[in-house]
Amino acid sequence: MTRNYIPRNDKEFEQFFRNITDYVIDNNARWKHIPKDDVDILEDQFSQWNTAYEKTLVPHIPQLTAEKNRVRLSTERALRHFVNRFLRFEPVTDLDRDKMRIPNRDLIRTPHIDVTEVVEFELKLRNIREVLVNFWIKGQTHKAKPAGYDGAVIVWDVLDTPPATVSDLTLHTMASRTPHALEFDETERGRTVYIALSWQNERGLIGQWSEIQNAVIP
């Protein structure tokens, strides 16, 4: 299954995002497995992107392009997570995914009913406004993800005080390979980001969360 299914062109991304959002709204009553709050969040994410994107379709100042790029990065992360969490498995069908232009898997190699592996990871500071997440299977020396898995779910947040639990980390993305770079805004430099990871299998199930680590954003 291709990982780069989200269009890079902004106009095509707009159409792709709109199509998924509309399709989810129209079909969730049939699926019945996506909480209404999550559908509302998806709709709000699209609205944020649409608003930022449309401001760049007319003569505009450079700051609006920068804001559009920032919103795209944030909303694309959220969209990937939504797809991996809700649209990769039944009751969503292969036909549904075709209509949403989400690629189907050619083959599921193992059942992967449970996710037993645990993630270990380290954080490195490579460039300004960037934290590099280097992860692997706990107890292993190689950096490959578990066979047949989507990858590692990364959750994080920039907070003034340490989070009590992983559920306090509100931002998320799917990393299919290591290392994975998290990028931040200029206003977040010098603040502390808290990060945790879990493996996710091809059925969208996640395993045990790692311990929460933190780094100061360079």
In total, the number of strands is 7
Number of helices: 4
Shape: globular
Question: How many individual domains?
Answer: 2
Radius of gyration: 18 Å
- The SSE order reads HHHHEEEEEEE
Strand order of the largest sheet: 4-3-6-7
The proportion of strand residues reads 15-25%
- Please report the distance between the alpha carbons of the first and last residues: 35 Å
Structural class: alpha+beta
CATH evolutionary superfamily of the largest domain:
Immunoglobulins
The name of the CATH architecture of the largest domain is Sandwich
Counting copies of identical and different chains, the oligomeric state is single chain
User: Could you name the CATH class of the largest domain?
Assistant: Mainly Beta
Mean pLDDT: 89
| CATH topology assignment of the largest domain | Immunoglobulin-like
Measured as a percent range, the helix fraction is 25-40%
Low-pLDDT segments: none
Please provide a written account of the structure.
The chain has 218 residues and is of the alpha+beta class. It has 2 domains: 10-100, no CATH class; 119-216, Sandwich (Immunoglobulin-like). The protein contains 4 helices and 7 strands. The strands form 2 sheets. Strands 4-3-6-7 form a 4-stranded antiparallel β-sheet. A 3-stranded antiparallel β-sheet has the order 1-2-5, with no helix packed on it. A hairpin with a 5-residue loop joins β1 and β2 (130-137). It is globular.
